[in-house]
């Protein structure tokens, strides 16, 4: 995790989102790579002679695998994990801003959204369905890193390597808009400050010219250090993913987009479309609250037995 943080400190010095196309492409390829490995290993496990696992429409059995309260909390947390898959909405505008004007950005973005969501839904639905068929009620939170598969070691290791590379790129895709927001605010707030605005051009062998800004260097480095330390103190994968998913799902994926659509399209108040949009927004707010509560409970439960920085 420390090495991951160091790599992110270096990559965070890429000046802006427009220069990340190669990194996001690599991350996307890695995503398909480890998903395909997970699907393949699941199919191989299902095909093993005598394979039989406990499965059920509602998953873990109350009174056998867990208590009724644990069932509710885990279900709420799972909703947060699902909501996290909508986190891409936070960077849609930044991605659209990098597109050329022909064809129009909104048309190109709509097409890419349809293709991207369809393909990723297909892959991850297969991972979920086949993973559950392979492990049943004992399925780990992540079957590549949660000790679901042990053999073949080399293929599992390749899958985990793909995950690491994917996360390296994903971190930058989501962090760069935050970097840009803070830096643009700082340059507007203190336009005369050399710390904020002055850039130095540094020649790096085999890489090219690096545009260095002192505020960017300091602020981004501190940000990565903080997030890395936070991740090392609270390494609760599913609970943290569920909480982050819950926090970002309603405001960024539902509320702001629907409100902007209603205003831009001048939808009549209390019309069927207006009622439908408002109902969807209200339902997703409930989903967000439920997911947040479940994830927070999961973090609290794990903190009771976890010792920070202890292996």
TrEMBL record:
Gene Ontology MF annotations: symporter activity
Name of this protein: Amino acid permease 6-like
Gene behind the chain: LOC101501898
All residue ranges annotated as the Amino acid transporter transmembrane domain in the record: 1-300
Source species: Cicer arietinum (Chickpea)
Segments passing through the bilayer: 20-44, 114-132, 152-174, 217-234, 279-300
Lineage: Eukaryota, Viridiplantae, Streptophyta, Embryophyta, Tracheophyta
Function: Carrier protein involved in proton-driven auxin influx. Mediates the formation of auxin gradient from developing leaves (site of auxin biosynthesis) to tips by contributing to the loading of auxin in vascular tissues and facilitating acropetal (base to tip) auxin transport within inner tissues of the root apex, and basipetal (tip to base) auxin transport within outer tissues of the root apex. May be involved in lateral roots and nodules formation.
Keyword tags: Amino-acid transport, Auxin signaling pathway, Cell membrane, Membrane, Symport, Transmembrane, Transmembrane helix, Transport
Membrane-topology descriptor: Multi-pass membrane protein
Family stated for the protein in its record: Belongs to the amino acid/polyamine transporter 2 family. Amino acid/auxin permease (AAAP) (TC 2.A.18.1) subfamily.
GO cellular component, one term: plasma membrane
Top-rank taxon: Eukaryota
Coverage span on the entire protein: 158 to 468 of 468
Subcellular location: Cell membrane; Endomembrane system
């Amino acid at each position: 995790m420390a090495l991951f943080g160091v790599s992110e400190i270096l990559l965070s010095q890429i000046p802006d989102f427009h220069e990340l196309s190669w990194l996001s492409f690599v991350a996307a390829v890695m995503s398909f790579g480890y998903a395909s490995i997970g699907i393949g290993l699941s199919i191989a496990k299902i095909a093993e002679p005598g394979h039989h696992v406990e499965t059920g429409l509602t998953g873990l059995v109350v009174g056998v695998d867990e208590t009724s309260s644990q069932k509710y909390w885990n279900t709420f947390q799972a909703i947060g994990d699902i909501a996290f898959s909508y986190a891409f909405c936070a960077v849609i505008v930044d991605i659209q801003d990098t597109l050329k004007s022909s064809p129009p950005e909104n048309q190109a973005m709509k097409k890419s959204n349809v293709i991207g969501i369809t393909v990723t839904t297909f892959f991850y639905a297969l991972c979920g369905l086949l993973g559950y068929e392979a492990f049943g009620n004992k399925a780990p939170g992540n079957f590549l890193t949660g000790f679901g598969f042990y053999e073949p070691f080399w293929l599992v290791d390749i899958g985990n390597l793909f995950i690491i590379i994917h996360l390296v790129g994903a971190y930058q895709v989501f962090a760069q808009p935050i970097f840009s927001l803070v830096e643009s605010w700082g340059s507007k707030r203190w336009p005369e400050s050399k710390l904020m605005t002055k850039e130095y051009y540094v020649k790096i062998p085999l890489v090219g010219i690096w545009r260095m800004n002192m505020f960017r260097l300091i602020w981004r480095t501190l940000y990565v250090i903080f997030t890395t330390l936070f991740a090392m103190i609270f390494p609760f994968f599913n609970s943290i993913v569920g909480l982050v998913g819950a926090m970002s799902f309603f405001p960024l994926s539902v509320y702001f987009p629907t409100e902007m659509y209603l205003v831009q399209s001048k939808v009549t108040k209390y019309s069927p479309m207006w009622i439908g949009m408002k109902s969807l927004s209200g339902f997703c707010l409930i989903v967000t609250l439920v997911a947040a509560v479940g994830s927070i409970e999961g973090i609290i439960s794990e903190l009771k037995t976890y010792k920070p920085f202890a292996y």
